Structures are given as C-alpha cells and as structure tokens.
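During the no-cost extension, the postdoctoral fellow (Dr. R.K.) reprocessed legacy sequence entries with the updated structure-token encoder. One reprocessed record is reproduced below for audit purposes.
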Amino acid sequence: MDLYVCYGTFPLPGGHPCARAYNALTVAGHQPNVIRTFGCAGTDRFWPGRRAVKRLTGTYEVPTLVLNDGTVIDGSQNILAWAAANSPQASVVQQRASVT
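Re-encoded structure tokens follow.
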C-alpha cells in the first residue's frame, strides 16, 4: 500500500494529518510505502507528487492511501477509520480466539 503525504510523517504541535494517518496505519500493523508529495496550498500543481494525487482523487490534498488492490482512501479521518477496521493484528487475534 502507498501512503501519499506532504513532506513527511513527523509530529507537529497540535497534530498533523499525514502523521496521524501514518501512525494509525503502523499501529494497526500495516507498513505503508510513504510517498512524499511536497508542495503546499497554491503551489501544489507544480509538484509531480501532488499531480499524481489529483489524478487519483480529484484534489491535491493529502494524506491519501492507495491499497494494493487500487482502492483509494482519501483524508486522514477516512484513513484512520480504515486502519482501525482493517488491522492485520485484529484478524490474528480473532483467529486465535476462534481456535481456543
């Protein structure tokens, strides 16, 4: 899976959408390929990474998650919800619970 972010996944005071999305995915047991798109409001169209995101979603905004099957999940809140509902660790726990 690919996670498109702005400049990185570093924490900022008050939080940062790209960092929240990355952290939710890793805590859930996923290891996304992080793609830095660079750019910011007003300059997004000049950055190839942001143009790639626009082709996927219709906007330049990140974070954007692209699953291995091509499914696109856009926005940090949607990525957080997907990560919580699709944790590989949760499925292992469920499998172990059904065996005992």
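The beta strands are 2-5, 33-36, 64-66, 72-74. The domain at 2-99 is CATH 3.40.30.10 (Glutaredoxin). The remaining legacy entries will be reprocessed before the final report is submitted.
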